[in-house]
């Protein structure tokens, strides 16, 4: 999954946090080698090379990634979308284990007593989540979350009593269903379209204390700093009994405005990386990445890198005909938040 190393390196907030992590932990002698330390090592090597020359040589970058790739080899056959989720969750788990270990060590005992008083304070102010088995567990938030995590809210309106029930869920990426000749904006619109729950799919309304027809809508409550959009190009086709790749043309803009947010409709994003799947099917494919660096787009393919013109990005949108010789399709898109324009 070399394609991700370039993409993640160009996720600026993520890179900065990872380099901070490296600085704070490089002198810990007995640290075990894991995905996090390897990624931190890799990023630090690339960034120190940048200090020497002022620029990152993409070729050197690729060589470094290749060396580090031994570690990722066992995950190579995973789908790129699964791999990203695996990687981010693995980093969160490692950070959580380290924090727990630090809190359990004797010198941290004084600070842990203060943290327990602050958590009881939160309970006194009314917990948003009821305690489970009497133990309230705060969700563990790391700098991985700061970069990638957003919050979706699932609003369900009972059609009998009109009560709206909102349920929040966090995400590292949005998986969107795609249609032929569409765009990210229309896919996001479909993602947030109102769905009616009826017949066998009724909703249990707490107020009516019974199953009722309801309308459901998904909105983005907290847009993430880095918005990762996964296009569902692999679809299980029942009569084929296998996954098929959809080569649909889905236009992705360089600048994206999120419209399906709870508030702040002018959350703007700029595209800075694309993971491209090359090939006709899920089992015979190859990934490359397109990354924007210093206003130029770079095309990374395992051991090679070349500069491409932004005007050629449309080649990766997909094909408007089912059979096309072009099999390079944008699969996972990375947008960075430009902040709120309003
Ligand atoms: Zn109701």
From TrEMBL:
It is found in: Nucleus. It is an enzyme of class 3 (hydrolase). GO terms for molecular function: cysteine-type deubiquitinase activity. SUPFAM superfamilies: Cysteine proteinases. Keywords: Hydrolase, Lipoprotein, Myristate, Nucleus, Protease, Ubl conjugation pathway. Residues 1-338 form the USP domain. Residues 109-120 have a biased composition (Low complexity). One of its GO terms (biological process) is proteolysis. Gene3D superfamilies: Cysteine proteinases. Its EC number is 3.4.19.12. GO terms for cellular component: cytosol; nucleus. It catalyses: Thiol-dependent hydrolysis of ester, thioester, amide, peptide and isopeptide bonds formed by the C-terminal Gly of ubiquitin (a 76-residue protein attached to proteins as an intracellular targeting signal). Belongs to the peptidase C19 family. This is ubiquitinyl hydrolase 1.
């Amino acid at each position: 999954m070399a394609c991700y190393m370039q993409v993640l390196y160009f996720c600026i907030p993520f890179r900065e946090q990872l380099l901070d992590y490296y600085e704070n932990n490089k002198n810990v002698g007995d640290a075990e080698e894991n995905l996090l330390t390897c990624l931190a090592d890799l990023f630090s090597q690339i960034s120190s090379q940048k200090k020497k020359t002022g620029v990152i040589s993409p070729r050197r970058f690729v060589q470094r990634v290749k060396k580090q790739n031994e570690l990722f080899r066992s995950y190579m056959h995973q789908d790129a979308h699964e791999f990203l989720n695996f990687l981010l969750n693995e980093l969160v788990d490692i950070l959580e284990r380290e924090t727990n270990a630090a809190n359990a060590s004797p010198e941290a005992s004084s600070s842990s007593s203060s943290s327990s008083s602050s958590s009881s304070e939160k309970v006194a102010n009314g917990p948003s989540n009821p305690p489970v088995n009497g133990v309230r567990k705060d969700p563990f938030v790391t700098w991985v979350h700061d970069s990638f995590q957003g919050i979706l809210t699932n609003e369900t309106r009972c059609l009998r009593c009109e009560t709206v029930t909102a349920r929040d869920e966090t995400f590292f990426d949005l998986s969107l269903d795609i249609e032929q000749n569409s765009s990210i904006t229309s896919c996001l619109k479909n993602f947030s379209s109102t769905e009616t729950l009826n017949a066998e799919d009724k909703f249990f309304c707490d107020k009516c204390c019974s199953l009722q027809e309801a309308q459901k809508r998904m909105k983005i409550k907290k847009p993430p700093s880095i918005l990762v959009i996964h296009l569902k190009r692999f679809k299980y086709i029942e009569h084929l009994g296998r996954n098929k790749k959809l080569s649909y043309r889905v236009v992705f803009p360089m600048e994206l405005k999120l419209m399906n947010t709870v508030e702040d409709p002018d959350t703007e994003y700029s595209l800075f990386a694309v993971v491209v799947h090359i090939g006709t099917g899920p089992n015979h494919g190859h990934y490359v990445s397109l990354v924007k660096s210093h206003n130029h787009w770079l095309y990374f393919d395992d051991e090679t890198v070349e500069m491409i013109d932004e005007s050629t990005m449309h080649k990766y949108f997909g094909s408007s005909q089912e059979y096309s010789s072009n099999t390079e399709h944008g699969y996972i898109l990375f947008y960075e938040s430009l902040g709120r324009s309003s």
